[in-house]
Each structure stands twice: as structure tokens, then as C-alpha cells.
Amino acid sequence: MKSQVAAVVIVAAIASFCAHAQRQDSVQGMQSAYGIIDTIIVAGNEKTRDYVIRDEMTLKPGSVATYELMEYDKGRIYSLGLFTRVDIEYYKLDSLRLLYVDVRERWYILPVPIFGFRDGDPKKPFYGAGLLYNNFRGCNQRLSASIVFGYDPSVAFSFFDPLIDREKNLYFSGNLSSSKVRNRSDVEAALTGNFDERHYDINATVGRRLSLYETGGVNLGYHIVDVSLYRQGRTASTSGHDAYLYGTLDYTYDSRDLREYATSGQFASFYITKYGFGDADLNFTRFGADIRHYFPLPLNLSLATRAYGTIVSGSFIPTYARAYLGYGERVRGYFNTVFEGENLAGASVELRYSLLKARTIVFSAIPMPEEFSIWRFGISLALFADAGRTWFRKDVLTFSSFASGYGGGIHFLLPYGYVMRVEYAFNDYFKGQFILDLKTSI
Q1: In 106-195, which ranges are E strands?
Q2: I want to staple 425 with a disulfide (CB 3.0 to 4.6 A). Which of 13, 76, 81, 332 is the partner?
Q3: How would you write 399-423 as a 3-class SS string?
Q4: What mean pLDDT do residues 127-152 have?
Q5: CATH of domain 152-438
Q6: According to the CATH classification, is domain 24-105 in 3.10.20.310?
């Protein structure tokens, strides 16, 4: 039974990516065509530059406007994370045919209270504060800073500019962080008790937007790791202190209609990261991929599929660089179970029914600034199946070695792009568990 569930989930997810990619609106578009667009007018953006909105749209002057394409572009504009409301209308005024894009902007400077339980464990509380300056200079640039206390304390600063050079379509990001992380390896904790890792990191990325859907970039960084209790294998060096350069090449394709909860489009991300250059004690390469496909179906149904994984090559892999399920990535049914190894592979399939399509609600009866009175909600029911496995290079990989689970639940699309998932899952031994999680769509 265990191998059958895992095989079905993985094959179903991978098979979807072999299907010919075809936009749903290309089939239905002519049934709801309004006409050719002569000009596009953007309104309501008091701070945001027009090009930030236009660059996310598939519709351009000369395009044929359809209901499907207008709805798709609304999702793309929402996905910028800059607006509480987006409306797109087509008008004919005498001989002029125009597309009218009306937006309402969010509050861009946000103090962010931080509180939660690390890995969903009530024994691991953390708390702190952050400051997010979104849409800096009206160019969708983001500045952020945060400080966290409690379990895994940290301090971080970051900057992102999606279009640092408009002529060449270049983007840039920079990050600086320091954190104290409790060891995540149950194997190491069982041998000597738990220990802490101190991480210090600085990195920068320069990339190019290759098309409406494609980006590619190069990231370079310097990382330091210190362990509080040294044991062979916890660091590459014998001193318990690793310091190394790393570099990443990445490529992303993203045609999703709404990034936080997509119902159509594709997402594919590939990367290669080299850890350690020259005579560094650390010297290995990690390859990773994350591929997702979303199919709109009749009767308010949609199908979401995902396959993802990471593998390594090279020399010894220290404990802190291992791959884990049970922290960031999880298998529902084994939600709180930690699996560790050098490599990781997983897949998910999710059938959704839109109970309440995402809609904008205006709380006009409550006195508050307009930026906070416009909220967006949606509700979906979902059936899902997951499978995943971590392994070391010496292990044999088989379907029967995958952990798998299945179940159902209700998903709430909340304001500011949050998704709350209330689910119940069974693992492949029919043991059930309740799941409450804040997470974007698969």
C-alpha cells in the first residue's frame, strides 16, 4: 500500500508536466472577445509607476481583449503584492477602444509584529519585530529589516529591486543576516544532545528578466558557520568553524495567474549552487528543481501538481547542509516528522473546488484608511496526496521508501496574500493528523 500511494502521487505529478502546455484562454478566448485594444490607461496608482503594472500584463495595445485574458492579468497584477484591489474594464468610446486598469494601493510602510512557533512546535516560540518598506520609490523595490528573539533568534536586512536597469531588464537583490539555529539533525542530537549553529551570511544577486515569464540570475555570497559542540561531520573543518564562498546560477519560469493560490499556469525553477572555491574545506555542488502545473477544470475545479527535489555531488556534506523534510518542505500525514539526508525528492497533487472565488470586500462602515478597508478573500475545498523522501548517497531509492499521505481540507485566501490551510491527513499506515498551516499554494 505504501509503495502504491507514493507511486501514484509521483507519477501523477510528473505526468502533468509532460502534457502539452496550452493556455485555457486560447481555447475559450474568442467566445468572449471584446475587441482590439488601441490604448491602455492605468489609474489609481498614486505612487506606483505605470510600467510596474504594464510589465506584468499579457495584454498590450494591438491585442484582442478577452474576459479570460483580463482575469489572468488581474491575477498577475495582484501577485505584485502592491494593491488591495485591481479592476480591468474594456471600453469603446467612438473610434477609441481602450483598456482601463484601476488599482488601489496598499499601505507600503508596515511595522510587522513577529510571533510563532518554530516548525509548528509550541515548545519552540519565537517573537520579534520587522519593518517592511514595500514599493520604495514606486518601483516595486523592497527594503526590509527584522529582529527575532526566542527560538532560533536572528537579525536580517534585505533589499530587492526588480528592475535596476530598465533598458537591459536587470534586477538586483542584497541580503545580510545573522542567526543562531538549533541543530535540526535528530541523528546528531541522539548522539551528543542538541547543539547550536551560528550562521552569518552576506550575498548579492544580479539577474535579468528574459521575458514576461522568465528570469535568470547569478548569486554570490560568503557564509560562516560555527557549532557550539564540535563532532566530526558537523562542519567540514576540524575546528568547528566553516567559512566559505558560494555561487548560484538559477532560472525561473512563472506564468501562474495568482502566485499565492494559482489555478492556471506553470512554474519551474532550476538552480545549481557551488559551495566552496579554491582550497576551502567545503567543496560540493547542489542541484535543485521545483516544477508546478495548474489546470483549470469545469465546475469551479482546478488541479495543482508539483514535483521537486535536490541532489548533491562532491565531497563530504556537513550536517547543516543536509536536506530535510519536516521543516520547510513537509509530507502531509507526516507533517511533524523529520526526515534527513543529503538528497530530497517529493511530489504533490491537489484537486480544488472554489467554494468562494477570490473577491474584494470593502468595509466602508468601519472608519479606517482606505488602504486597510479593502480586503480580498477566497475559500476553496481541497483533496490532496503527497509523497517525499530524503536519502544519503549510499542509500537505494525505491517507491516503497517514500513516505506518503493523503487527505482533504479547506483553504482560506486571506488579505495580503496569506493562505490558511485547515486540513486532515492520513499517512500510508492510516494514522491521521490535524493540520493548521499558513502557507502559499503548492
Answers
A1: 109-117, 125-136, 141-150, 154-165, 170-182
A2: 332
A3: HHHCEEEEEEEEEEECHHHCEEEEE
A4: 93
A5: 2.40.160.50
A6: yes
pLDDT tens digits for range 37-66:
999 999 999 999 999 999 999 999 999 999
Cα–Cα nearest to 302, from 343, 351, 339: 351
Residues spanned by CATH 3.10.20.310 within the chain?
A: 24-105
CB under 8 Å to 230, separation ≥6 — which residues? 238, 239, 240
The Cβ of residue 339 has, within 10 Å, a number of other Cβ atoms equal to 20
For 380-394, the DSSP string reads EEEEEEEEEEEE-TT
Amino acid at 417: G
pLDDT band per the 50, 70, 90 thresholds, residue 367: low
Report the alpha-carbon distance of residue 131 to residue 134 in Å, rounded.
10
Whether 285 and 312 have beta carbons less than 8 Å apart is answered as yes
Q: Are 18 and 78 in contact (CB under 8 A)?
A: no
For residues 173 and 204, the answer to whether their CB atoms sit within 8 Å is yes
CA distances from residue 264 to 25, 32, 73, 82, 343 in whole angstroms, order as listed: 10, 18, 12, 21, 30
Amino acid at 368: M
Residues of each domain in the chain carrying CATH 2.40.160.50: 152-438
How far the first Cα of the chain sits from its last, in Å, is 24
CA atoms of 320 and 227, how far apart (whole Å): 10
Give buried/exposed letters for 239-273 (b at 16+ CB in 10 A, else e).
Answer: ebebbbbbebebebbbbbbbbbbbbbbbbbbebeb
Please give the grid coordinates belonging to residue 84.
488591495
Alpha carbon distance 227, 236 (integer Å): 11
Alpha helix ranges (H) inside 153-261: 186-192
Q: Decide if 252 contacts 210 (C-beta within 8 A).
A: no
Could you tell me what percent of the chain has a pLDDT over 90?
Answer: 66
Report the half-sphere exposure of 161 (CA within 13 A, side-chain side).
Answer: 14
**Which whole number is the average pLDDT over 177-195?**
92
Q: Name the grid cell of 175.
A: 541580503
Confidence of residue 368 (pLDDT cuts 50, 70, 90): low
pLDDT at 111 over 90: no
Q: How does the average pLDDT of the chain come out, rounded?
A: 88
Q: Closest Cα to residue 264, out of 79, 407, 404, 418?
A: 79
- Count Cβ atoms below 10 Å from residue 162 Cβ, excluding itself: 19
